[in-house]
Known about the structure:
The protein is built from 15 helices and 12 strands.
Amino acid sequence: MIPRFRPNLGWGEFKKIFSLTPKSEVQDFEEEFSAFMGQKYARSFSYGRMALYAFLKAHQIEKKEIILPAYTCIVMAHAIEESGNHSVFVDVRKEDLSMDFELLKKAISKETAAIVFTSLYGAPVNLGEVQFIKEHYPHIKIIQDCTHLLNGKSQGKTIAHFGDMALFGLGLSKPVTSVFGGMLTTNDAELIKQIDSVKTHLFSDSVGRGLFKRVYLFLAFVAFWKPFYSVTNFLERYGFIDYFVKLFDVNKIEIPKDSFQNLSSFEASIGRLQLEKFAETAESIQAVTGIYQQGLKVPKIDVTEGIVVSHYNILIKNRESYMESMLSHGIQVGDMYNYSLPELKPYQGHKYLSGHNYSQNVAREIVNLPLCVSESEARRIVELTNKLLQS
């Protein structure tokens, strides 16, 4: 069976499970990540969302409005709420899933403290719009959410550089993974001092974290082993492994219990290995992306050339039927972010600037295709998808 995603893990990562990892791995990973992104500073976190949390705390932003897309991962809104602030949602555009710019300008109020610009599914944000906000609202903090666009560029410029900070997710579904974890990057020396202060007071090391993540990665090797993945799929479909794979609840605002733990040296050592092999990972993902872009005859989220995405997405009106048909052919596809945040129970009643409610439409039709496949498998997926949707 072809899984909906599979991390690029190999013998090097497997050996790390049984190796001692010095504490210096964390600082080394942060320095290598900042160099990789072309920025002066990077700080690691237990999850990408905690980088946002720490940023708001570092600036002592509380009881303020933080604007973000209505269609994005719910953990971003959870982090905003847990920091003592209030999420404001803006509908997205059809062409690139970025916030509708006219609606964004209407959403800004005297209570707005920050805006989260999200480059989703290979479609980079418009840096001209970001620059407009910086020039007309210099007091508003700009956060670049690059969890789905590690090397993202727009108009030839690195997206992560256009803001007060950028945040990255490093979970198993990302092109660079540290098992769990996230990263914040910036060129602002004063901000890093404030972030370090927040980390000192609110975050702590945990010996148990490193041990648990070693066990988790070992189980991931087993779960993604080709002969075993059919069993993994069965266990996932019927909720037997929810404890290991469900990292948030769409029905309540919460953050994981280990959110205030620092990234372990083991996770950092995996992240360093992943950075070393990024060129290999990128080449494979871009080859598969190109096959999907050229061959699929269905509505899709176009990926800007040269960008390495964490997920490739198409839009299917009869999504459930399509997903079941693909599974019957041994291909698992996903429906990540199958929700629009203002529709969810915790965020009903929150301020929402809606245009054509495209956020809701995308949430009902989005399908994530596997990127962890060979080129021949990608062509098979294209052929089967086109055939199923024409019948």
